[in-house]
């Protein structure tokens, strides 16, 4: 064979091999169901979101070990939108358009969810959103597995107003400056006024993402509290919680004097803080790691084993929290819905999600509402302990149905209680 013929033979063989590899690759892809994971792994929100990425990966490993879904293994596609809100939209387009994922688990802040929302609606994708939020939204393409305001914010304020909660008369609404804190505080301001709280007894303050100097703000809170029994409602998000809680400790602002109830601080956020000066301050969630139930014992062990096996940061002291539970519920409910629908088709899965139930780590059977794409969830209020865990001091008798449209916002009585079909 001459040199030219030899080269042609090599090229032909390479092309055949390449084609075979391409076919094998495509065949392999056809044997998996791709799952998008859309959480900030860098930037100000990484402190909260990284662990949710790992929760999804743990659940995928668990599902795959039991045979996958519809006879196929789940294949995670992890992207990092880097606490950059417009980048959440771009990464969503990539996941749905390029990677062809069947579902996305992701977002923490409402501004990131609002960035993703028009994309999943336009491309008819599916987003499972695992964090408490301000409500005032319903989408055909989103399932909200975190709390609506009536499953967190309103019960927390009711508790602080009660005798058991200290009988607060004055209120500091302190948050990060974006849609979730501002809308939640709009709802709370209207609710407090409906309970007879005067305008002069409500102080509203906001700081930017990544804010680190809380000395002046904490001093202002102490001064405001001289006017009567005061409570602070904190909707601070991300790594700003660390300097805020450190400043509370530095200023000696104790829970018995001015209790702080947080809606975005759990076990993970307290990891980097000396919790001893914060004992007695509060958080309102639908799950705490300290809850005693066989389901929670199993969940904590699964997570501990996974974190240690993967050598994850903090695996020497594995922690679970509310958004992790909401993430875990979401992916398991999605699996059940896909199996019920016998398809990953978005519209078929949406229909199959209605009424899905799952025994949550909290020990409560969570149910996806038949209409409004929100979970029925129990509410717990916990006090910070010296070890950074929470002691549950109050809980609802059972699961509470979400009310995405707050009755304290004018005009919400005319809003539909289910997502508009598009």
Describe the structure.
With 422 residues, this protein is α/β, with parallel strands linked by helices. The protein has a domain at 150-288 and 409-414: Rossmann fold. 39% of the residues lie in helices and 17% in strands. The protein contains 11 helices and 15 strands. The strands form 3 sheets. It has a 7-stranded mixed sheet with strand order 7-6-8-9-10-14-15, with helices on both faces. Helix 4 links the parallel strand 3 and strand 4. The protein is globular, with a radius of gyration of 24 Å. Residues 1-28 have low confidence and may be disordered.
Order of strands in the sheet with the most strands?
Answer: 7-6-8-9-10-14-15
Question: Which series of helices and strands comes N to C?
Answer: HEHEHEHEEHEHEHEHEEHHHEEEEE
Look at the structure and give the CATH class of the domain at 150-288 and 409-414.
Alpha Beta
**What value does the average pLDDT take?**
92
Sheet with the most strands?
Answer: 7 strands, mixed
End-to-end separation: 64 Å
Global Rg: 24 Å
Count of helical regions: 11
Shape summary: globular
**CATH level 3 topology of the domain at 150-288 and 409-414:** Rossmann fold
Helix- and strand-based class? alpha/beta
* Tally of DSSP β-strands: 15
SSE layout and pairing:
Elements: H1 3-30, E1 32-38, H2 46-65, E2 73-79, H3 85-98, E3 103-106, H4 110-122, E4 127-129, E5 142-144, H5 153-161, E6 170-176, H6 179-194, E7 202-207, H7 215-224, E8 230-235, H8 241-251, E9 260-262, E10 282-285, H9 294-309, H10 322-341, H11 346-353, E11 357-359, E12 365-368, E13 375-376, E14 380-384, E15 390-395
Parallel strand pairs: 1-2, 1-3, 3-4, 4-5, 6-7, 6-8, 8-9, 9-10
Antiparallel strand pairs: 10-14, 11-12, 12-13, 14-15
Helix pairs in contact: 2-10, 3-4, 10-11
């Amino acid at each position: 064979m001459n040199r030219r013929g030899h080269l042609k033979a090599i090229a032909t063989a390479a092309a055949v091999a390449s084609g075979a590899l391409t076919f094998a690759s495509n065949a392999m892809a056809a044997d998996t169901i791709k799952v998008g994971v859309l959480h900030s792994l860098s930037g100000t929100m990484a402190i909260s979101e990284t662990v949710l990425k790992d929760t999804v990966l743990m659940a995928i490993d668990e599902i795959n070990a039991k045979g996958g879904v519809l006879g196929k293994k789940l294949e995670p596609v992890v992207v990092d939108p880097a606490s950059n809100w417009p980048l959440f939209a771009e990464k969503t387009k990539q996941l749905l358009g390029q990677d062809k994922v069947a579902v996305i688990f992701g977002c923490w802040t409402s501004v990131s969810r609002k960035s993703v929302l028009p994309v999943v609606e336009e491309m008819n994708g599916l987003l499972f959103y695992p964090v408490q939020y301000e409500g005032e939204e319903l989408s055909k393409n989103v399932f909200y597995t975190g709390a609506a305001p009536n499953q967190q914010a309103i019960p927390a304020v009711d508790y602080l107003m009660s005798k058991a909660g200290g009988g607060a008369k004055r209120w500091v609404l302190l948050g990060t400056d974006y849609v979730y804190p501002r809308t939640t505080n709009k709802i709370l301001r209207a609710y407090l006024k409906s309970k007879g709280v005067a305008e002069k007894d409500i102080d509203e303050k906001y700081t930017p993402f990544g804010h680190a100097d809380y000395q002046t703000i904490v001093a202002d809170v102490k001064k405001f509290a001289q006017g009567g029994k005061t409570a602070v409602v904190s909707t601070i998000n991300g790594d700003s919680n660390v300097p805020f809680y450190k400043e509370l400790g530095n200023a000696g602002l104790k829970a018995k004097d001015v209790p702080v109830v947080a809606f975005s601080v759990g076990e993970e956020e307290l990891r980097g803080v000396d919790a001893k000066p914060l004992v007695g301050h509060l958080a309102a969630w639908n799950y705490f790691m300290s809850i005693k139930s066989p389901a929670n014992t199993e969940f904590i062990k699964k997570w501990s084993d996974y974190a240690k096996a993967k050598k994850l940061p903090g695996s020497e002291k594995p922690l679970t929290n509310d958004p992790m539970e909401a993430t875990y519920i979401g992916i398991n409910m999605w699996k059940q819905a896909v199996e019920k629908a016998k398809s990953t088709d978005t519209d078929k899965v949406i229909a199959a999600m209605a009424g899905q139930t799952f025994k949550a780590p909290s020990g409560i059977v969570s149910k996806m509402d038949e209409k409004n794409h929100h979970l029925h969830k129990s509410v717990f209020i916990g006090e910070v302990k010296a070890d950074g865990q929470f002691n549950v001091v109050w809980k609802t008798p059972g699961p509470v149905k979400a009310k995405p449209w707050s009755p304290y916002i004018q005009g919400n009585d005319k809003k539909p209680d289910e997502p508009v079909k598009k």
